[in-house]
């Protein structure tokens, strides 16, 4: 870019030296822009969706010849510097193309830099805020589950101990009652007895 701009500036100085001050003549003879910049969007799909602006030059040939204003304005010939003006035009056309390309690259760079900053902020938020919060929540849940498991184990042991105490108390109570009643005679079976007393009805 520096070399092209330096060459364009030198060619402007040469043209002014050869043809004199021709700016008013050129401005009067040019009524339509020959260089137009068109913008379009380029999609970049990655971690986030980015639309990059792309600039391109479209050259419109005004009246069919690029040097028509030179011929009409009387800037041709040995003393008028037509060759220097043509070289000046070519050099500045090249400089404009490079400037548009540079503007496109710089705009894309700024857009991508902003997208990278946003992505870095999101990554930092996930890494330093969300993930530690989820890890603390998981630690709390695991601690609560362990505590609940210990409580359940303690409760089951207490229930077994109470059942054991109740069973021992019941066995002692049964043994005490059996000791109070003495030996219990086995009841006789009426169906197996062969000798029945006669019943007398009066």
UniProtKB/TrEMBL annotation:
<keyword id="KW-0406">Ion transport</keyword>
<dbReference type="InterPro" id="IPR002699">
    <property type="entry name" value="V_ATPase_D"/>
</dbReference>
<feature type="region of interest" description="Disordered">
    <location>
        <begin position="181"/>
        <end position="202"/>
    </location>
</feature>
<dbReference type="GO" id="GO:0030665">
    <property type="term" value="C:clathrin-coated vesicle membrane"/>
</dbReference>
<dbReference type="Pfam" id="PF01813">
    <property type="entry name" value="ATP-synt_D"/>
</dbReference>
<comment type="similarity">
    <text>Belongs to the V-ATPase D subunit family.</text>
</comment>
<dbReference type="GO" id="GO:0046961">
    <property type="term" value="F:proton-transporting ATPase activity, rotational mechanism"/>
</dbReference>
<comment type="function">
    <text>Subunit of the V1 complex of vacuolar(H+)-ATPase (V-ATPase), a multisubunit enzyme composed of a peripheral complex (V1) that hydrolyzes ATP and a membrane integral complex (V0) that translocates protons. V-ATPase is responsible for acidifying and maintaining the pH of intracellular compartments and in some cell types, is targeted to the plasma membrane, where it is responsible for acidifying the extracellular environment. May play a role in cilium biogenesis through regulation of the transport and the localization of proteins to the cilium.</text>
</comment>
<feature type="compositionally biased region" description="Acidic residues">
    <location>
        <begin position="193"/>
        <end position="202"/>
    </location>
</feature>
<comment type="subunit">
    <text>V-ATPase is a heteromultimeric enzyme made up of two complexes: the ATP-hydrolytic V1 complex and the proton translocation V0 complex. The V1 complex consists of three catalytic AB heterodimers that form a heterohexamer, three peripheral stalks each consisting of EG heterodimers, one central rotor including subunits D and F, and the regulatory subunits C and H. The proton translocation complex V0 consists of the proton transport subunit a, a ring of proteolipid subunits c9c'', rotary subunit d, subunits e and f, and the accessory subunits ATP6AP1/Ac45 and ATP6AP2/PRR. Interacts with SNX10.</text>
</comment>
<protein>
    <recommendedName>
        <fullName>V-type proton ATPase subunit D</fullName>
    </recommendedName>
</protein>
<keyword id="KW-0813">Transport</keyword>
